[in-house]
Design goal:
two-stranded parallel sheet; alpha/beta; about 325 residues
Length: about 325
């Protein structure tokens, strides 16, 4: 199964395999014959750059967004949760999640970054892990479904979730400042945490400046931290100078036995540079499943692609 963009440079060499003779010719002249029991599946979003020779050898199945039932995804997710929580999660999905999701899908065109229906659902499910009560479930919905909207729409979305869940926020005037405290099992509001006087030495390190924990910064940390804690990959989007780098670095500094590998992207950055960085930071070891990369100096390595919008697309619109 080949998942990704189809461009002539690699798929043309498979044309002979997809013929009746099932023969693969390698660049060195060697020929490999495939049996009738070998099939190829190419999963891609379009065929703009596929040649007629390739297209004529393939059967086509178009899977539209309307064909994907969200309930299948959520039921599969619920079945993976602890058995004692499944009935509650099913009820909260009906009462809160689907009401919130319908609101989001009606305003999908107003999202800051373009995404798909399944992308929206999967983003929400990543926050819903380990939700054991209605308050934490409602808060996870606010984070997972509302984080791709502008400030004004996020406020409207918060109102909808609180009404659907019947939860009472700690600060009704500033709905986005509310969060669910898992330890105390109550709604609380982010407030400015005064650290005291800053020492001049703290300002010397330009890479790791001190962070002033305003209510807004705490809200951003509350959005990013769950994803880092659960090893989720994510994209943090925002205008230049809004504090993305500051939030990420301050969170990773607090994590134990974790190393950060930063790749500063530019127009020439390619997949080669990511592999090169992995080779520098990791060592290869052989296990029963095959060869694996392990971080050299820590238990966990986080790859941080800074300015990921800068790499230049190739002639096939691929980055």
């Amino acid at each position: 199964m080949c998942d990704g963009d189809i461009d002539p440079e690699w798929i043309e060499s498979l044309n002979s395999v997809m013929d009746d003779n099932h023969l693969l010719t390698l660049p060195n002249g060697e020929r490999i014959s495939f049996g009738d029991n070998v099939n190829f599946i190419f999963e891609t979003n379009d065929l703009r750059f596929a040649s007629p020779a390739t297209v004529s050898r393939l059967g086509m199945i178009f899977l539209s967004e309307e064909d994907v039932e969200v309930t299948r995804i959520t039921k599969t997710w619920i079945n993976k949760q602890p058995e004692e929580l499944r009935n509650k999660l099913t009820q909260w999905m009906e009462d809160i999640f689907f009401t919130a999701l319908d609101w989001v899908l009606q305003r999908q065109h107003e999202m800051v970054e373009e995404t798909t229906k399944v992308g929206i659902v999967n983003n929400a499910l990543s926050y819903l892990q380990k939700c054991s009560n209605k308050g934490s479930f409602a808060f996870a919905c606010i984070l997972g479904l509302g984080s791709n909207f502008s400030y004004k729409l996020r406020k409207e979305f918060c109102t909808l979730v609180f009404n659907a869940s019947g939860e009472r926020p700690a600060d009704p005037k500033n709905l986005l400042s509310n969060y669910w405290d898992e330890a105390k099992q109550v709604w609380m509001s982010y407030i400015f945490e005064a650290k005291g006087a800053l020492k001049i030495e703290e300002l010397n390190d330009s890479e790791n400046p001190p962070i002033v924990r305003t209510a807004s910064i705490q809200k951003d940390i509350g959005l990013v931290k769950p994803l880092l804690d659960r090893d989720e990959s994510f994209v943090l989007v925002g205008p230049e100078g809004c504090g993305k780098n500051l939030v990420i670095r301050s969170l990773i500094r607090q994590m134990k036995s974790t190393q950060l590998a930063v790749i500063h992207c530019n127009a020439q950055t390619s997949a080669f540079h990511v592999i090169q960085k992995l080779n520098q930071m990791c060592s290869q070891s052989t296990v029963s499943q095959g060869r694996v990369y392990r971080p050299k100096e820590c238990q966990r390595l986080i790859i941080y692609l800074k300015d990921i919008n800068l790499p230049k697309p190739d002639k096939y619109d691929t980055i």
